[in-house]
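Ticket reopened. Same input as before:
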Amino acid sequence: MASLVIAEHDNAALKDATHKTVSAAAQISTPVHVLVAGENCAAIAEAAAKIAGVEKVLLADAAIYARQLAEPMQALILSLADGYDAILAPATTTGKNILPRVAAKLDVPQISEILKVVSPDTFERPIYAGNAIETLQAPAGKKVITVRTTAFKAAGPGGSAAIEKIASAADPGLSKFVGETLSKSERPELTSAKIVISGGRGLGSAENFKLLDSIADRLHAAVGASRAAVDAGYVANDYQVGQTGKAVAPELYIAVGISGAIQHLAGMKDSKVIVAINKDEEAPIFQVADYGLVGDLFKILPELDEELGKRGYK
Amino acid sequence: MKVLVPVKRVIDYNVKVRVKADQSGVDMANVKMSMNPFDEIAVEEAVRLKEQGKAKEVVVLSIGPGQATETIRTALAMGADRGILVKTDQTVEPLAVAKIIKAVVESEKPDFVITGKQAIDDDANQVGQMLAALLDWPQATFAHALELGDGNAKVTREIDGGLQVVDVKLPAVMTTDLRLNQPRYASLPNIMKAKKKPIDEKSPADLGVDITPRLKVLKVSEPPKRGGGVKVASASELLDRLKADGVL
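Engineering reply: fixed in the latest deploy. New output:
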């Protein structure tokens, strides 16, 4: 029949997580349609129409979808579900919030955070913080799936899908958006950056955490953190990499002052190259690191910064 | 008001799980079991609501084998009032868990359900949302802070971009994120008191819920292992290596 991908966006820009979810959907059921639900988001629908492999974009542009709250989104997706045998969303906080409601209402199990499509009904997903990989076969019927976006390549440009405006579903009126505090950063997004530099408790304070900034700027890297650093208040929650934070898989991951609890490793061990900087030679992070620098990070970071400067990284 | 807190018994978060050689699952023999850490945060939040006089009763529910009674006792020692064990030795998938909780909600009639955002064994992150949908209730997932009003809850949520505040009508389901609170350790007198608190036992069949798994687990395997790395002596050597690898 077809797959429906729920677009990840903030009414201003279509997120790369959508392109990656389209790649997963194309391996499950084609054609692939994308649902763009938001407010004043026609430009998002136009961007989604250009993704290779997308046949149609459904645009639900209404105030009730401005924040993609779970309850109205559930009603909207259910109103479309008949036409699809697979419904997918990226495993972002938005996708994770909405999709289980849809699965429950359809009375089908949800398969969370797939890493691989083995066949159109069989999937791999991580369990136990990625310490085991489960291969699951879904029953006949509709599939409801969230996608670990770091495990799929983004579908490229080159599409020219039709855009169809669709009507809003009834608003259940159970919840309302009050406000938000978003981290502002000129840096790339954590989940799609090519280079990530993360700090842990070893940095010791919010002030010291800023030692990562200059290096991150020189490398055009995103900045992440371990749970310990977030709990200690050095940085905000949206920096957290790990089992229950964000999963990242950049080309290069630099872990600074992070011991390497299994919950942190779960979120970064699929990175291509891992560098660990830590004073404790026995720290578990070194077991997954390709390169380890043992020593005082307060000496090593300035050296690294200076060395990058010498080599022309501005 | 009454608060219902569903809790799960899982392999302790400090245990390094091992995949069984026959790929049928992970090794559970002689492994330390504990309450799912996110559910501990849920119990703590409910008990605080009681201490603040906002909740009258905190009921803890667990679905699992007989040993899940210990998990319920832990919650009772933290300050919950009574427990319900829905006893089964079978694997219960998130959708069936949500259906069981829904059946309990229909008899207990709580105003608020608080549970962990995910269990650290299957990492599914589904039950709270599914329960809310089955009940046609609103949800506030990944809670960072809670402000309980009269007939509503204002919840700050941890989202990918930062924090979001939503206002949900009660009854509602809230799922907890890590920084909602710091769960207490139960004191010895409270552990003793918890032994006398009532735990009601039921079966999924008593509640009319079919828990037959829908998904077929074909295998459980080890993730790819990373090759051993090397130690480098200086920042300069590190950059040389990264350059040679083509990641800089």
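The mean pLDDT of chain B is 97. The CA atoms of residues 103 and 207 of chain B lie 6 Å apart. Please confirm and we'll close it.
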